[in-house]
Design a protein that fits this description.
- The chain is of the alpha+beta class and 878 residues long.
- Helix content is 53%, strand content 15%.
- Strands 1, 2, 3, 4, 5, 6, 7, 8, 11, 12 and 13 form an eleven-stranded mixed sheet that branches. Strands 16, 17, 18, 19, 20, 21, 22 and 23 form an eight-stranded mixed sheet that branches.
Length: 878
């Protein structure tokens, strides 16, 4: 029965002409049979046809009743209204194009930002049951957490009861060769549990197993399908082939599925096995650990389990880590991946909401003007029998059709906006996965529909008023003197300015914050300073003596390159090292309470030439010398901020520290204090401790060169010097330290750029709103302006009168906007540097700029009004 009715509805909607012909044929057949029956009774054909029609009833009424019985009459009428609305909008191209473009801007920005939010914050991670995945940190306060050590991972694997799999990854750039020339790639060294925890299988071969992690087992690796195709032709062909990774031969045992080269936000084509040696102390840290919860267990249960493990292993490893407060703490993997992106996306979402509201207000204001101009048409429809509800539906339908046009255009705007967002917000996790997909299209449709209804409700409410409906029936020319409509439009214009001000202020504050960041002294002279990364294979350099010879040869060779004034090496890259070189310590003369959390700062290793090469001044004591080789006397140089924090008003020279929590290690003696250097980003704390590389040479270091010539002129010489030290070691491309500083503030610059774009759109819409309001006012009051000018009013007075009216709306809106800005300022505080979220100068400057735009937008129609010919204007029928 339901299917029959559904079939009837569909036929009534999509083959209406056929259904109408069938109905007319059926009625004609019924009349013909009735006529034949009456003729058979002896009536003449004419009398029989007349009698049959009388018995049948009013054909038109019966046809209408039949149409109503189908249950789709309202849809048919709605379709007719939509077709009429489309024709009406086509006859008003100026209104349609301007309104559709404004709506497209609003809908497009909503679609673009929704796609970004959906991909970054809402979408699941590409792993089964991603809500069971956690990342484990060591943590001793809500704001202090760090990566784990081998001891930590082994303890969790041994004692943990909350996880079905625990995996570890340590990334790094290495030299990779598949039989030909080596290339530098990012490799993700992983344990077998890493792929198990993520539930990622291989497309060919096998996954890593626990036996692969043993030091005596031959090294193996898993590679991406893309790398397998590029180097070996196919996944199957890659199996059992050999890759030389970091100087060691690795057998390929598995190939990941096509398209999979990012695991837990680590992108790589090469995934060698991570083989752990037996630890002698609880450190160093640096291991990224993820785990999969046992089915049915919560993160809170895992937190209790991990806390118990922390307490259990503390006494065993207390000599190398004295922090009894620290606890292993699990966090949702999804939360750790997208955590930093939540704030800027929330900011962008709020900005988009304001732009959409301004766009809707603008189009609603334009719709009121169009509604007033169509009053005669609506009056005529009312006189001809159209009900008030029918007219209201017609007005709202036209608004919805208009918003649908804006929505279609908005999809293209959204597609382009998403491309810009991906470009300017590069580095935001998972943003590259954002697409204008079916969900985004649904959002665009819903937003367009809501906007259309909201726009249509404003004129529709005018039709609902009893006094206005009497005007319709009487066929009056207008809905009144227009003052009430002017007030409604003025409210919309004031609202646009009120909504634009918070956007403009936020953009100005972020821009000011970025400018201040760029002016921060990084602590070194970046001009003429260049850097590159050098990584030596562990297979070729197995001890510190071999590494020391290689790095010494590199420094000596680079220093002799023509055009280079000095060269230095370091384990850390200022001004933003991402916390990769942090170390905890304890002061011998002022230790933390037993079991307390030790302070942690950036602790890079540097060569003796580092401070002179980077232009970092010595403030007290001495710098490193070649004889600072550790042993029973380890030395360090600290920054001014470090000395001020821990020895304010006293000399730090000669003070001793216990480094890394190792109570059995020799004390570290402070021998010098240098100027502050930023390692955690410009504008952050500058507390750092420097250790001499002569105490222990790592395999990967940053090379810094102070050049008297352009980078292009010295690159070949640097390359040759490294090649002379070891032909098998390559360097990465050389970069300017000025570029490094710029990249360190690129993200806040991009955020400010995006918000400035939104603010510019809001400002433009607000200007268009006040321009449209005054332009209509000039057209409506043309005769009044003519009379004023005929009576002697000078053009300047007319201009000032109209500008004053527009300025009044802008001032009221700006005052409301200031209140909104103060309320919303708390959202910006965490994103600003060295500027208050309610900075008076910024608020005053933005308000003044907004009012200046209002004056300009008001001046254009006012200037046109001043050119009106009084005689011509007074001839018009007012």
């Amino acid at each position: 029965m339901i299917l029959i009715r559904l079939r009837g509805w569909l036929r009534s909607l999509f083959v209406r002409d056929v259904v109408e012909r069938e109905m007319q044929h059926e009625m004609a057949l019924h009349l013909e049979r009735s006529t034949e029956r009456l003729i058979a009774r002896g009536m003449t054909p004419v009398a029989a046809r007349a009698q049959a029609r009388r018995e049948f009833g009013n054909v038109a009424v019966i046809q209408e009743e039949a149409r109503d019985a189908r249950g789709v009459r309202w849809l048919v009428e709605l379709w007719e209204d939509a077709r009429y609305s489309a024709r009406a909008l086509a006859h008003a191209p100026a209104f349609t194009i301007s309104a559709a473009l404004i709506l497209a801007l609003g809908v497009g920005t909503v679609t673009a930002v929704f796609s970004a939010v959906d991909a970054v914050l809402l979408a699941h991670l590409p792993y089964p049951n991603d809500d069971q995945l956690v990342r484990i940190y060591n943590q001793n306060s809500p704001t202090s957490r760090w990566t784990l050590s081998v001891v930590d991972v082994q303890s969790i694997e041994k004692y943990g009861r909350s996880f079905s799999a625990v995996g570890t990854i340590r990334g790094g750039d290495v030299a990779v060769s598949a039989g030909g020339d080596a290339e530098r790639l990012h490799a993700g060294y992983i344990t077998a549990g890493f792929l198990d925890a993520l539930a990622v299988d291989v497309a060919a071969g096998r996954r890593l197993i626990a036996a692969d992690e043993r030091p005596e087992s031959p090294p193996v690796a898993v590679i991406s399908d893309r790398y397998a195709g590029r180097m070996f032709g196919s996944a199957r062909s890659a199996l059992d082939r050999v890759l030389v990774i970091d100087g060691r031969a690795h057998r390929i045992v598995g190939v990941l599925p096509p398209g999979v080269r990012q695991l837990a936000m680590s992108s790589s084509d090469v995934w060698p096995v991570f083989r752990r040696t037996t630890p002698t102390r609880r450190g160093p840290n640096g291991l990224f650990v993820i785990a999969r919860l046992e089915p049915g267990l919560t993160i809170e249960a895992a937190r209790r389990d991990l806390a118990a493990i922390s307490v259990r292993i503390f006494p065993e490893w207390q000599t190398s880590m004295q922090d009894s407060i620290a606890r292993f703490t699990p966090y949702s993997l999804r939360e750790t991946i997208v955590g930093r992106a939540a704030r800027p996306l929330a900011l962008f979402s709020a900005a988009v909401a304001l732009v959409l509201l301004i766009a809707v207000s603008n189009v609603a204001s334009l719709s009121i003007v169009r509604f007033l101009r169509r009053w005669r048409e609506l009056s005529l429809r009312s006189v001809l029998g159209a009900s008030r509800g029918r007219l209201i539906r017609l007005v709202i339908t036209e608004s919805v059709v208009l918003s649908a046009i804006g929505g279609v255009l908005g999809l293209f705007v959204g597609w382009f906006g998403l491309i810009l967002l991906q470009r300017f917000a590069e580095g935001m996790p998972r943003l590259s996965d954002a697409r204008i997909d079916a969900r985004a299209v649904i959002v665009a449709v819903v937003v367009s529909l809501i906007a259309g209804v909201a726009i249509g409700i404003v004129p529709a409410t005018r039709l609902m008023a009893p006094r206005r409906s009497h005007g319709l029936r009487d066929g009056t020319r207008s809905i009144g003197d227009g003052k009430q409509s002017d007030r409604v439009r003025a409210i919309f214009v004031a609202a646009e300015f009120a909504l634009a001000l918070p956007l403009l202020t936020s953009a100005a504050l972020l821009l000011g914050s970025f400018v201040r960041l760029t002016r921060v002294d990084p602590g070194f002279d970046a001009h003429g300073l260049f850097t590159t990364t050098i990584d030596v294979p562990s297979a070729s350099y197995r001890d510190n003596a071999a590494l020391a010879r290689f790095w010494t040869n590199v420094l000596n060779g680079v220093a002799q390159v023509p055009g280079i004034a000095s060269a230095a090496l370091s384990t850390a890259m200022p001004p933003d090292d991402d916390g990769n070189n942090n170390n905890n310590f304890d002061l011998v003369d002022s230790p933390v309470p037993p079991g307390g959390a030790q302070p942690s700062v950036t602790w890079p290793g540097v060569s003796t030439q580092f401070f002179s090469a980077l232009g970092i001044p010595l403030l007290d004591g001495r710098l490193f010398v070649p004889t600072d080789t550790g042993g029973n006397r380890s030395v360090a140089v600290v920054t001014r901020s470090w000395a001020k924090r821990f020895y304010s008003g006293r000399s730090a020279i000669g003070r001793e520290m216990i480094s890394g929590g190792c109570t059995t290690c020799p004390h570290t003696v402070i021998v010098g204090v240098v100027g502050d250097v930023t390692y955690d980003g410009l504008g952050t704390a500058r507390e750092a401790v420097f250790a001499p590389l002569t105490e222990g040479w790592p395999r990967e270091l940053y090379l810094f060169v102070r050049a008297r010539a352009p980078a292009a002129a010295i690159v070949r010489g640097v390359h040759d010097a490294i090649h002379a030290a070891d032909p098998g070691v390559a360097m990465q491309s050389m970069k300017s330290m000025e570029d490094e500083i710029y990249e360190s503030v690129a993200q806040p610059q991009h955020w400010a750029t995006i918000l400035i774009a939104f603010a510019g759109a809001a400002l433009l819409l607000a200007a268009v709103g006040i321009f449209g309001l005054l332009s209509y006012a000039v057209a409506l009051r043309r005769r009044e302006i003519g009379v004023r000018m005929a009576l002697g009013a000078p053009a300047a007075t007319i201009v000032a009168w109209l500008i004053g009216g527009g300025l009044r709306y802008a001032v009221v809106g700006s005052l409301i906007g200031l209140c909104l800005t103060v309320v919303a300022s708390r959202w910006l505080r965490a994103s600003l540097y060295d500027v208050s979220a309610v900075d008076p100068a910024t608020l005053l400057g933005v308000t003044a700029a907004l009012i200046a735009v209002a004056v300009l937008a008001s001046w254009l129609p006012a200037r046109r009004a001043a050119t009106i010919d009084p005689v011509e204007a007074m001839r018009l029928d007012g």
